[in-house]
Design brief:
Order of helices and strands: EHEHHEEHHEEHHHEH
Distance between the termini: 12 Å
Largest sheet: 5 strands, parallel
Mean pLDDT: 91
């Protein structure tokens, strides 16, 4: 039995990746959301909470992970972040494998992975689509977010692989610096092409 064509979807902050992921869902493409999986695995009742609490005391409560407290433990501390990732990544990987098994009969599935290049999560992908827009547009989108500042935006950008490098490494680039309908048409064309190739 052939498996689905697996497309990785990524893009820097404010590039419109969430909008593109929704366009894909609207075209009945199964999309695995790595961020959503992390949120589920850090919520109340998750079997990972005891391990997270043991590694980072005070970082969990009755509702699951206390994001601010956990962030304070790992922000700017590579060793602490590596300890957290050692807990989270295998669990997210297991969820992704289960998702793939659930959609084994689909021609195309998408893995939405925000830090695909930053964390080296490209294994097992058949292609990668990078969502991109001009820097000025990205900046306007990000600074419109509640609580965002120029300094915080600069900090986030410094931690991400530059957009130009992502575009250079991508199999496909999805432009969100154009009208929404134009982006949607490009996404639909890409899906049609990949589904045809998979069959």
């Amino acid at each position: 039995m052939t498996r689905p064509f697996i497309l990785g979807l990524t893009g820097s902050i404010g590039m419109g990746k969430s909008a593109v992921a929704q366009m894909l869902r609207d075209l009945d493409v199964p999309v695995f959301d790595a961020d959503a999986a992390v949120h589920r695995l850090q919520s109340a009742g998750s079997p990972l909470l005891d391990r997270i609490e043991a590694a980072f005391p005070g970082s969990t409560g009755p509702d699951g992970v206390r994001r601010q407290e956990l962030g304070a433990h790992v922000f700017g501390d590579r060793d602490a972040l590596a300890r957290l990732e050692a807990i989270m990544h295998p669990a997210v990987g297991a969820e992704r494998a289960a998702f793939l098994a659930d959609h084994a009969d689909a021609a195309l599935v998408v893995f939405d992975i925000p830090l695909l290049y930053e964390k080296g999560h490209g294994e097992g992908l058949d292609a990668v689509a990078v969502v991109s827009a001009p820097l000025a547009m990205q900046r306007d989108r990000v600074l419109a977010r509640p609580g965002m500042t120029e300094a915080r935006f600069a900090q986030i950008l410094a931690l991400q692989v530059p957009d130009a490098e992502k575009r250079a490494r991508a199999t496909y680039v999805i432009d969100t610096g154009v009208a929404l309908a134009e982006t949607a048409a490009a996404v639909a064309a890409l899906v049609a092409m990949l589904r045809a190739r998979a069959r």
